[in-house]
Amino acid sequence: MATEYSSRGFLTIAVVPWGDQWKKMRKVMASEIITAARLRSLLDKRTEEVDNLVRFIYNQCKSNSGSSAVINLRLAARQCTGNVIRKMLFNRRYFGEGRKDGGPGYEEVEYIESVFTVLRHLYSFILSDYLPWLRPLDLEGHGKIVSEAMKVLNGYNDPLIDKRIKEWKDGKRKEPEDLLDAFILAKDSEGKPALSVEEIKAQCTEMMFATLDNPSNAAEWAMAEMINQPEILQKATEEIERVVGNQRWVQESDIPRFNYVKSCAREAFRIHPISPFNLPHVSNADAIVSGYFIPKGSHVLLSRLGLGRNPKVWDEPLGFKPERHLKDGCIEEVDLTETELRFISFSTGRRGCMGVALGSAMTVMVLARLIQGFSWKVPSNEANIDLSVSENDLFMAKPLHAMAKPRLPGEQLYPPY
Q1: How far is the C-alpha of 183 from the C-alpha of 123, rounded, in Å?
Q2: Range with the poorest average pLDDT among 24-28, 45-49, 61-65, 190-194
Q3: What DSSP state is assigned to residue 32?
Q4: Closest to 181 in 3D by CA, of 33, 61, 294, 287
Q5: DSSP three-state, residue 404
Q6: Distance CA 336, CA 363 (A)
Q7: H helices of 42-105, where?
Q8: How far is CA 53 from the centre of its chain?
Q9: Per the UniProt record, which residue ranges are transmembrane (predicted)?
């Protein structure tokens, strides 16, 4: 139910059954949207938003009658990833006026909450998924919740998309500036528009779903673990100082040289996945996996937890230990993906996430900017950060709040608003 609602009747790629529609959308995404050249062309937009993340936190520190402040890192991380994908899709940070300190306005908060409402229900159990004739009864109330959340998202997205399509039709636009333009200009083999308006709208929304949760969740959990273990945070800070120094900000071009920071992000993916299962799919042929016979038509849920915690395939103690990912000191071997299925960060295989490079860059940039720009510690009224897991999902039970203090010399390094 939730996947059908979120994809406007299975018009997208991630949650669409294998078949002609999936092949069509995958071809467009691979050839027109998620390409290396396209992502390079949008680098400035991503950089602008991680600059804004620093600005937002810095302004809170300065407005708190001192040089430090308790920061809601969940809010900061989610809004940063939301800003990045909004800027890449629609070339805008805010749907409304936003806040003068760089933070989200009412519209952005409502939008992000609706995204996570839908995501939460993609993985939830609903009886009508197995007994379709029960769907009109909406016994669990999930149908109403998801449809209302989608109304909020579509209410923000659709007018922007309709306006942009009209601008191209009327000749008011000449050059593409974001991914929405790329969707509109994509052509099929006959030179006709590759996607319908409904497909464009559905895929834009799905890209929001795909980029918001994983990077922000990994950054929040990694920061929580590192603040509780200051020696790990210090090692990450020292690496950034060694690679970048303290006279400029971390850029995406620096990421290949961040061995330890990437290990921290990878460790967050390992023990704090965004969900207990990968996106559910149905097997289209009989198969044997790890000695188990999986008949055609089976509803397959690949666990993100069991493999990562199995000592037979991960011969290391539990706990947040980034060093476990360092292999002979080789930077190239530290990657946020896991091809051996010891854990799943961005899914894998033919149905794996097509935006692995983008998701990895967003994760590392958010984490690196937080570490580089500020000194972090447990709020004065707490002994340590509570690492309890929520009862309803795998987020932290409470949003991460931590004391931040600008650590770079000179106010001129912090982006003015």
Answers
A1: 28
A2: 61-65
A3: I
A4: 33
A5: strand
A6: 9
A7: 43-62, 73-90
A8: 15
A9: none
Supply the pLDDT for residue 317. 59
- Amino acid identity, position 153: L
Collapsed DSSP state (helix, strand, coil) of residue 303: strand
Q: Is 210 helix (H, G, I), strand (E, B) or coil?
A: helix
225-246 in b/e burial notation, b at 16+ Cβ within 10 A?
bbbbbeebbebbbebbeebbee
Q: Compute the distance between CA of residue 336 and CA of residue 409 in angstroms, rounded to an integer.
A: 31
> What are the b/e assignments for 276-294, b being 16+ CB within 10 Å?
eebbeeeeeeeeeeeeeee
The residue behind tokens 């993100």 is: 304
Q: What residue type is assigned to position 173 of the chain? A: R
How many residues does this entry show for the chain?
417
Dig out the tokens for 227 from the structure: 């603040």
341: number of Cβ within 10 Å: 14
Q: What is the mean pLDDT of residues 331-345?
A: 73
Q: Which residue has the tokens 């409470």?
A: 398
Q: Which residues contact 395 (CB under 8 A, 6 or more apart)?
A: 74, 217, 220, 389
Q: How far is CA 311 from CA 303, 314, 316, 318, 344, in A?
A: 16, 5, 7, 9, 16
Residue with tokens 């961005």: 346
Q: Is 300 helix (H, G, I), strand (E, B) or coil?
A: strand
Residues 6+ apart with CB under 8 A from 358: 34, 39, 211
pTM of the model: 0.91
Q: Running DSSP on this structure, what letter comes out for residue 255? A: G
CA distance 327 to 342: 16
Q: Is the pLDDT of residue 136 over 80?
A: yes
Q: Which domains does the chain have, with CATH numbers?
A: 20-409 (1.10.630.10)
Gap between the Cα atoms of 90 and 36, Å rounded: 19
Determine if residue 204 is labeled as part of a ligand binding site: no
Give me the helix-helix angle, 230-243 and 259-271, nearest 10°: 140
**Spatial strand order in the sheet of 401-406:** 69-72, 401-406, 374-377
Contacts 24+ apart (CB under 8 A), 234-237: 235/260, 235/322, 236/260, 236/261, 236/264, 236/371, 237/371, 237/372
**Is 82 in a helix, a strand, or coil?**
helix
Question: Greatest CA span in the chain, whole angstroms?
Answer: 65
Strand partners, 222: none
